[in-house]
TrEMBL record:
Protein name: histidine kinase
PANTHER family for the chain: SENSOR HISTIDINE KINASE, TWO-COMPONENT SENSOR PPRA
Keywords from the UniProt entry: Phosphoprotein
Record-annotated Histidine kinase domain positions: 492-717
Signal peptide as annotated in the record: none
UniProt KW Phosphoprotein keyword: yes
Keyword Phosphoprotein: yes
Domain of life: Bacteria
Amino acid sequence: MSLTAKPIRFLLSPSLGEVKEHVRAELFGRALAQRLGRPILVELAPSYEVLEGELAEERVELVWGTAEQCTHFESRARAVLRAVRAGQGSYYSALLCRAARPLTLSTLRGTRAAWVAPRSTGGYLLPTRYLTDRGHPPADTFREERFFGTYRKALLAVLEGEADVAAIYASHPEEDTVRAYLAEHVGADERRLMPFAFTHATPADGLILTSRMSEADTATLVSVLTSLAGSTGGLEPLLGLFDSEGFVLASEATTRVPRAVRQTDYLAAELDAEQRCLRLWTPTGRAFGRDVREAEGRPLREALGMEAGGALGALARSARHSGGGRVEYRLEVEGETRWFAAEATLRTPTDPAREATTAVLVCDVTELRAQEERLYRLASFPLLHPEPMLELGPDGVLHYANPAAHKAFTDLFPLGPRHPVVEASLAASRRASAGDTPGVHWEGRHWELTVTHLVDPEGLRVFAKDVTVRKQMEAQLFKADRLAALGSLAGAVGHEMGNPLAYMLANIGFAREELTRVAEALRSQDHALSTDVADVLEALTEAADGAHRLKTIVQDLRTLSRAPPEQHKTVDVIPLLEHALGLVRVELRHRARLETDFQPVPRVEGDESRLTQVFVNLMLNALQAMDEPDAANNVLRVSAYTAETGELVVEIRDTGRGMSPEVVARIFEPFFTTRKTNTGLGLSVSHAIVTGLGGTLRADSREGEGTLLTVVLPAAQEMSPFEAEFGDEPDRAAEGK
């Protein structure tokens, strides 16, 4: 059935916990939606107060409410359905203590109470009203009262000695019934608890169908819900969500509700060696569309029909050889396809003279099987989720990690609570800031974490999303913004510094020329001032060197402030590399051995001086990364080749100190340098020149192993003979002719 109508909101009580109940609630909602023909969205209320507020404001169609809420809203609702437990639409509350430390009403004074929540009927309201009526008001009786949120947590508080008294609901005021409910919450530890008092009965909690639901939908839903215990319902196993066997209208809940007879095929049989029915029983006297009330003494196939009897006969024969077996099979029953689960067990009699028999049990699982697809889809979510998902205890102990998490974080088990992802998740849970999305950088990847709290048992569920690409893009955008701002500033500064530098260099040059002439005259006369003049000349020479250095920096700033002018001249790169090597030969001689590998490469479009500047900057950077004392072992390798894509590739590799990933990420930023004597502009200027020509400049480095700088430039387009002779403006050339 296609569910296209507006969804129904189904709001659950917060005491239902987190994991098992969530899956059951989701399946219960989906099964109801299938019968109703409308989608049902299941939500867990964060508190009883929020649930009551949603009811009061009529913002929800279906609510699992407490007994008090059912009573309070009954007059305003379309319908109220009370839960049926052990044939009753009401229940009791049992007061519990540790079996090793028994209590009675008369010995309660001074003890500590563990309650579920202020709006919980069985876990607080009912027992406290009972105590007050018996002359033991809680405020005067207990020295401490605490709320734990769920029945399980309240019971555990008593078991662990944090409290002495707790309360739990029960369908009947007797110990065996209470123990059945205790076992659902604390398992085998139920033996360590004992009930010592029972309250009076109260109408049961249940489902509230609000006035937001139409009368037609209400009638359908009431019919489905009130017939669960006696229908062929695949929903019946899901009623464990409410510890209930069905529902009854509130108006009918005051009388004992008779248990409905199951209509689902359920068959029990005992067969002899010839597969004759020694005994055969079903609740209705029918099975597989046949009347089986007179089946004793008849062969199984005759009693059940060839198809059903044949399948069960094969299972029984197998059980006689192996001791037991189980099978699921499909049959056509009265024109409808049904699924059945059957089990067979060999029963060996105590009397050796008697023959062994085979016990067979059969159950119709058609509708339960229909829910399996949804169950498996829900259960497989963590396994198939493409991103890492973890569940942690409050102390960071790993309870679960899906395959994606183990693949992304291979050291989860060794590091445990010390893993950065776990530490960040715990820190985020402690902050509990709205909208806080913690991030972790681990092994070169950026992870964004979504942390949610699990209620019962306590813990954290963590989803990790790989945002490395996004972070890289953000860094590039940030860098581009900074470069744009720096470029504007650099252009303005370069322009303002240009003229003063020109005056400075001109005047220093004039002063040096004049003082040189004066110094020569004084030396020829052996004048005492000749030495002083020489000192002044030396100072002016140093000033000139500084001014020229400033001029170079200003030129670099101007390069950053604007893209290099477009060049249409094609350039052969190999001669430029050889020229650049000649310019750094003094530095090269003292630091490293040179290796070259120049293969045939395409020409590129660019400016010879600009490209030479790039290669010189990269070579000097490589040489300065290698220490002079180790010159005999240092190697500078310069190579050029053609990439498979046809682009020119120039590689400059050194065997120097190398760089950390953090340094590599910043080396093309203006003014970033690891050397005190460096301006930090060489590599950034080179990057601007290369990218301005449509190429790329990248760095790969490992600490202690050296660095590889790679320049990739697009090959120049081949020109026609006309373009080679007249350039790339044929129209103007033709006009010139």
